[in-house]
Amino acid sequence: MDAKLLNPLTLAYMGDAVLDQHVREYIVLKLQSKPNRLHQVSKQYVSAKSQAQTLEVLITKEWFTEEELDIVRRGRNAKSYTKAKNTDVQTYRKSSGLEAVIGFLYLDHQNERLDALLDTIVQIVDER
């Protein structure tokens, strides 16, 4: 299977789960707190607003390869038939672009690159 050929919203669906799992592991090990507190902290990393801001930082830092930028663009421009919850459409689309590239790296088994991206995302959010 060529992950590049998948629908960008399918990649974003996968990327959402991968990012969520990475963040959960990170905060569980970091905070060792009760589930409600963990959930509140995790939103700082996985909300659409946070993901959109993080994507902008990554693009400014020229973090992505050309292939990855293409996936980001496809994810950002994909027509979603679900409504964005608690955010505007533009923010939702940017977050979908970030999730799409995460999903792509995961499904394409680019594990080193994926780990580097996930760690960078956490670092960017921690620095805010």
Automatic annotation (TrEMBL):
Q: GO annotations under biological process? A: rRNA processing
> EC no.?
3.1.26.-
One Pfam annotation reads Ribonuclease_3
Instruction: Give the record's keywords alphabetically.
Output: Cytoplasm, Endonuclease, Hydrolase, Magnesium, Nuclease, Ribosome biogenesis, RNA-binding, rRNA processing, rRNA-binding
The record's annotation in InterPro entries points to: Mini3_fam, RNase_III_dom, RNase_III_sf
Q: Name one GO cellular component term.
A: cytoplasm
Cofactors per UniProt?
Mg(2+)
Entry annotation: catalytic residues: D16
Q: Where in the cell is it found?
A: Cytoplasm
Q: What is its main location?
A: cytoplasm
Q: Which GO MF terms does the UniProt record name?
A: ribonuclease III activity; rRNA binding
Q: Hey, which family's this protein in?
A: Belongs to the MrnC RNase family.
Q: How does it assemble?
A: Homodimer.
User: PANTHER family recorded for this chain?
Assistant: MINI-RIBONUCLEASE 3
Query: What is the documented function of this protein?
Result: Involved in correct processing of both the 5' and 3' ends of 23S rRNA precursor. Processes 30S rRNA precursor transcript even in absence of ribonuclease 3 (Rnc); Rnc processes 30S rRNA into smaller rRNA precursors.
Please identify the protein, giving its name as recorded: Mini-ribonuclease 3
Organism in which the protein naturally occurs: Staphylococcus hominis
